[in-house]
Each structure stands twice: as structure tokens, then as C-alpha cells.
Hints:
Layout: H1 8-17, H2 23-53, H3 59-71, H4 78-89, H5 93-106, H6 116-128, H7 137-146, H8 152-168, H9 178-189, H10 196-208, H11 214-218, H12 220-233
Amino acid sequence: MQLNAMNTVELNKVLEATVSVDIVALQAAQKYLESAAASNLELLLVELSNLLSNTGQSENVRKAAAIQLKNYLTSKDESVKLQYQQRWLTFDGNNKLGIKTNILRTLGTESSHPSNAAQCVAAISQIELPLNQWPDLIQILVTNCTTPNAPDPLKEACIEALGYIVEDIEPTVLVHQSNLILTAIINTMRKEEPNDRVRTAGAQALFNALEFCKDQFDRPEERNYIMRVICESTQTNICET
């Protein structure tokens, strides 16, 4: 199946069908996506990222686009994951940049939680950061988390992305940015942070970062500060919905 700009509407309908309870529609959608991927996976991922970043699309379509995109980028099977990572590196640089730009643009615009775009960011980061690619990613995420008056959904999605990244990446890859990342995570957990979702996302990110931030926890002054923020955070009225 040759994917092109003329059948984006069809792809939209296919993505809607991937969350359908109709087994026939679901199987047809899966077959379509498999065929499109076999024909031109790179273009399919571009189109999926375009739909994901389009706030005019239904939330079902955007969520389905993110899920499909992530599933073509990573896998729980380590051997398959390695194949996917090597495949990503063969893609055209402009297409990769377009996909990454679309995913970053999506952060903070989703109504579903946790952010599906954040998981896509993390999947690509696992491929590129160890190769010193996407060098501005961490700074972008940290800035979005710490900028005063940044929209709460953007802070939440970016701190989720940081949490996913540090959970799986080899700590030595980001050793020079570990303090920056930990500072951003702790900042979102402070009692002064008024948004419950942001604080909860910060707490989850810190949990994910425990191994990543081992050096900071080994230093008493830093460990005591982190523990104080955690204890103060437990006194706030966090209610997950």
C-alpha cells in the first residue's frame, strides 16, 4: 500500500478503527497499517506524527497515532528493539527532524494521561542520546518544566518524558545533565507547585530516576534536600483523577 498525501483521510479512519470494538474493523485496520509500513514505513511515521500533533484531530486518532508510532520505535523484546533502533538511524534526517518536531509540539496538548507523546519522545531519545544526537532535547524538556507560568499540561508532559528517559537510559549517557534533570524533577514536586498532576508526575519521575540519580543521593546535603522536598510534598492534597 503506497501511502501519500491523498489518503491521509483514510489513515485517519484506520486509526479510529484501531480502538474499535468491532473485530472485523480492527483486523482490517491492522492489515492496512502493516501494508503501509511494508510499503514505506518512514513516510507512515511522518504521517502518524502529523496526525498526532494536529490538535484538530479527535483524541482517539491522536492517541492511536502515538501508540502506533511508539510501537514502530521500540519493543519490550530487546532484540526487536535493537532492530527498530538501527532502522530509525537509516531514515532521512529531515524526516526524523520532522517527526521529532511534531512529537515535541504535541507535549501539553493531549487530553489523555499519561502523555502518549512523552513516551514517543523517550523512545527516540533511547536511540539518539547515546549517539550524541538530539543534543537540545533535555534542555527543552527542562525549560518547559521550570519556566514560570508555563502551562500545567506542558509541564506535566515534559516531566513525564524526563521520567521515561532516565528510567531506561544508561546513566553515563546523561551524566553531565543529571543535576539539571534532577533539579527540574524536584522543582515540580515542591509544595509551592499548585498543580496536583504536575506534582504527581514529578514524584513518578523521581521514582524512575532513583538509579539515575544515585550520585546525588550519595551526597548528604543533596539527599537531605531531596528528602525534605519529598516529605513536604506528602503534606499536599494530591488527588489523582
